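Example 3.2
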Amino acid sequence: MEPLFLLYAIPLLYLALKLWKHFDAKRDQQCYILDYQCYKPSDDRMLGTQLCRDLMKRTKNLGLEEFKFLLKAVVNSGIGEQTYGPHVVFSGKESHPSLVDSIVEVEEFFLDCLQKLFQKSGISPSQIDILVVNISMFSTSPSLASIIINRFKMREDIKVFNISGMGCSASLISVDVMRRMFKSHMNSYGIVVTSESLTPNWYSGNDRSMILANCLFRTGGAAILLTNKRNLKNKAMFKLKCLIRTHHGAQNESYDCCYQKEDDQGNLGIHLGKNLPRAAIRAFTDNLREIAPKILPITEIFRLTILTIIHKISLASSSKPRWPKPMANFKTGAEHFCLHTGGKAVIDGVGKSLNLTEHDLEPARMTLHRFGNTSASSLWYVLGYMEAKRRLKKGDKVMMINFGAGFKCNSCLWEVVRELGEKKGNVWEDCINGYPPVSLANPFMESFGWIQNEDATTFKSL
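Structure, written as tokens:
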């Protein structure tokens, strides 16, 4: 009897041990945010109305029609007067920046964000196991990641990823890289450095599809400290629940809607095509379709399933269905929404698709107004606004959504792990009491509205 018992017991114990090791290892594969830091340039780098006027005057090949287009674009952009630009636009070198100018821009951001992050967290550079850097429109040799490693004297065995060309969507791509690395590297610290370099990409031509980028993109960046250490989970700020990436690069219309190019005069810039909104909607729809089952409660999935069946039956029986096409209520799966600040139209479009209120859209709108579109790092400024407003409570879910050239849409869900008290060094701390302002009206119309009535035959200059 005993040999027979052992014959069955030993395999069962072995199986139980393997299962326990598997699930125990899963606990060390989580992805937590310990802290993050957004970059805030000095006040003398603000792109106010008068400076923007000087910038337009320096661009010699702009005519009356281009000025009218720029005025309309800036007024409708949702951007205020306190956003920041690179050094070259203040020194008048935006049309011919040097390699040193471009490196100085990113080094300035690297040193500020990372030094503050290390100081706040108490983690030293030598403790970092994984480094992921994304700067899409600028690449050097040695890499930008190597600049950080050299400056902070990081370890020889650090795992390094230097990502370029991913555009505004690169931030969540970098988080995804970190998440995947955590699955095979236990008890690790990782840092994601996310930003953009405007210095070599400030457009000085007159192609309307390219001068639009000058109205939206601004200087900024963020550094995020992450870990999968089980013993730090209660000290973490956020826990990653899921992350979904959608890439429509195989479709020509999506691929061609946003890319870097030279115009007919050889001026380098970012082309934003008229088909970009359509490409964004397709990528966004596909992304939501995939992430919905992962974040929505079972009750909402059941409701959506029943209404979808009713809608299809109604559609089959009549050319004018009595039941509208059902929409998922994503507010049942997330309390807060970090939206990419790609422009007022982007925020409006995502808000309408998700049926969000003005309260939900406020963090993205205010971030766009105060800091502009800081590319891949914009999500962290939006998160910083929520934190500064004390909106984030323990157990809350935060959904992040961003878009990027390619064309890509990425989204993820974070859970607030602990109560978040007053945070020192929040990029909003000196101005949060003034937000939201009474009016978001852009002063450009008041200062330059007269251009609308000008005639090409008599117009001379700003």
